[in-house]
Amino acid sequence: MSKQAVGRVIAMAVVTVFATELGLSQLESHGLPYPGYVALGILAIAATLWVTEAVPLFVTSLAVLFLSIVWLVPSMRDAGTSISPQAFYSPFFSDVIVLFLGGFSLSAALKKKRLDEWLASKIIHQTGSTFPKLLLGVMAVTAVLSMWLSNTATAAMMLAMVLPLANRFPENHGNAKALLLAIPFAANIGGLGTPIGSPPNAIAMQYMSRAGIAPDFSTWMLIGLPGVAVMLGLAWGTLLVLFRESASPMPETSGDLVRVTLDRSILVITLTVAITVFGWMTASLHGLSSGTIAMIPLLVFFGTGILQNRDLRDMSWDVLLMMGGGLCLGTVIAESGLADWLVAQLPVDGLGIFMLTALFGTVACTMSSLMSNTATANLLLPIIIGLSVETTSPIMIGTAFGCSLAMPLPISTPPNAMAFSSGKINVGDMVRPGLLLTIVGVSLALTTGYAWWKAMGLW
User: Fold this and answer.
1) Are 291 and 94 in contact (CB under 8 A)?
2) Tell me: the pLDDT tens digits for 147-156?
3) CA 146 to CA 198: how far, in whole Å?
4) Which range scores top for mean pLDDT: 122-131, 274-283, 370-379?
5) Taking the mean position of all CA atoms in its chain, how far away is CA 234?
6) How far is CA 206 from the centre of its chain?
7) CA–CA gap between residue 165 and residue 183 (Å, rounded)
8) Any alpha helices (H) in 256-372, and if so which ranges?
9) What gap in Å lies between CA 403 and CA 450, rounded to an integer?
10) What confidence tier does 69 reach under pLDDT thresholds 50, 70, 90?
């Protein structure tokens, strides 16, 4: 039986189990309201289909939207909670989706003028000719950028530069997969290094500032950078081992391989890229979201004719639908009351600070694997700040790190989805290293990291 057939059987079994549960349990014996059970069913179906790839990933995303409208909305209405279907449609054209479109347009413009190949040649020249050196160099650059930029914006820029390198390898070559996976993993890991490196970090800082327990910028970097260095090394080694090939050196590149003729369109692309990157870097000054800034290359490239309608049609719309489904699932979990119910089941009474840090960090990682890490942080951090404990600082930091380190699936983080959009990796390629790094990363953060944070005076 094929993998797809097995996936369909599993998905049908999950649907049957939940249908039976919905019919026999009367839905309230465990304190979870009817819409929560419906959301749990949608979550189980979506997770099963995404992991098994029984159907194309974007089809699963559309199924999440369909089930939300025809199953969850009526169940919420019957339970006395009115919600508009628009709440489930809107994630499919949210700020994150526009950011993706902007990233795709940057990549398309660079590719059209062969600027991406020129940049790729420069990367090879700077990092050396062997693949391990190249991989390490790409990961280091990505991680450093993601400390200061949106990790999604960083992934968009780096993938535009790295895709030409990956295209030099034969189909399904391990080095190409490792190179593409290195971008999202390094972007996710690099975000741990600064308070602005990821949305969960910023949200944690916001709540900690209100409580008067926030570390300053330099203290955060002291507690985060060692973890970034260790995790980057582990991710680099993991990718080299899991995608090992008998011949690992990169193909040689001569300086004359790519010729770029300076003209008006090259100047427009270069200036637009610079303005867009500057806009992403200075978001705290002008207050515009990353998605709003990402509209600049869309407007400029299509407005000036550098990109045409066919370039728009060639963009990875299936990935945008897949990401929209992930965001929609987060709305399902939050609006149905399932998230609140799950959090309420956590056994927090009588636990010390270390155990609470481990508990919330693990829960945050698990939830962020299947929904937005920003949404997960927004759900958990208000609960943490209200705990009656000596200090919530390590619990907050552990939760923020748990959100950022969740990266086993294409829907887990936008950088993961962007790498998946290349078409050169499948879900299995991402799950193997992603799940391993997620487990190891969270384990280290909540043990060794916890001790390091205390030694650095976090509390």
Assistant:
1) yes
2) 877 677 788 8
3) 8
4) 274-283
5) 19
6) 21
7) 13
8) 264-281, 283-286, 290-293, 295-303, 309-313, 317-335, 338-344, 353-368
9) 16
10) very high
**Mean pLDDT on 5-20:** 59
For the record, the structure tokens of 202 come out as 């910023």
The residue whose two tokens read 């609140």 is 340
Report the residue count for the chain. 459
Sign of CA dihedral 4, 7, 9, 15: negative
Around Cβ 222, how many Cβ atoms within 10 Å? 17
Cβ-based neighbours of 43, under 8 Å, separated by 6 or more: 329, 332, 333, 338, 370
pLDDT in tens, 419-437: 988 888 988 999 999 999 9
Q: List phi, psi (to 5°) of 345.
A: -80, -10
What is the rounded distance in angstroms from the CA atom of residue 7 to the CA atom of residue 1? 10
d(CA 66, CA 68): 5
Phi then psi for residue 304, to 5 deg, are: -95, -5
Three-class SS of residue 129? coil
The tokens 């989706």 sit on which residue? 97
Report how far apart the first and last C-alpha atoms of the chain are (Å, whole number). Answer: 55
pLDDT digits (tens, 9 = 90+) for 297-354: 999 999 999 999 999 998 878 878 877 887 788 788 878 888 778 767 777 777 889 9
CA distance 180 to 123: 14
| Degrees to nearest 5, angle at CA 35 with 29 and 38 | 90
What does DSSP assign to residue 124? H
Instruction: Find the largest Cα–Cα distance for the chain.
Output: 71
Q: In angstroms, rounded to a whole number, what is the distance separating the alpha carbons of residues 162 and 164?
A: 6
Query: CB within 8 A of 286, min separation 6: which ones?
Result: 279
